[in-house]
Write a structure and sequence with these properties.
The chain is mainly alpha-helical. The protein is built from seven helices and no strands. Helix 3 packs across helix 5 and helix 6 packs across helix 7. The longest helix is centred in the middle third of the chain and has 20 residues. It starts with 7 loop residues before the first helix and ends in a 20-residue tail after the last helix.
Length: about 130
């Protein structure tokens, strides 16, 4: 079905989601997403075992997988810039997966604010 063949009213935001069925990527799809995200990375990061990484990321979305790769890159870059000894590549990705899962749990919680109370804005520094 081509989107151009659908009426404009159906394509409006909030309506198209009713007709589309989306699922979390399976292990093969996660492997492919990770493979495309790892292309062009420096050798220590690009050499991660994609099959085991895809297996450990069950339940994550494509956007979460992108965040995992970005987070692992940042962790690796931080260690290199701080002069720390490089850890095993898999450990950077394990830490990244754990962080993304932790953030997903906290985003899922509803935070209620009283009338007149301001919501906190910004980022908290994470101590390593």
């Amino acid at each position: 079905m081509k989107p151009s063949s659908l009426p404009a009213a159906i394509l409006r935001s909030g309506r198209i989601e009713v007709w589309l069925e989306t699922r979390l990527p399976d292990e093969g799809a996660r492997s492919e997403i990770l493979r495309t995200r790892l292309v062009g990375l420096p050798e220590p990061l690009a050499s991660v075992n994609i099959a085991s990484l895809a297996q450990s990321t069950r339940g994550l979305t494509g956007a979460d997988l992108k965040a995992v790769v970005e987070r692992a890159k940042l962790l690796f870059a931080y260690d290199m810039s701080a002069g720390c000894a490089a850890k095993d590549v898999a450990e950077y990705f394990r830490d990244a997966v754990e962080t993304i899962r932790k953030h997903r749990r906290s985003y899922g919680k509803k935070k209620r604010f009283e009338f007149g109370e301001s919501a906190p804005v910004g980022f908290l520094c994470e101590s390593r």
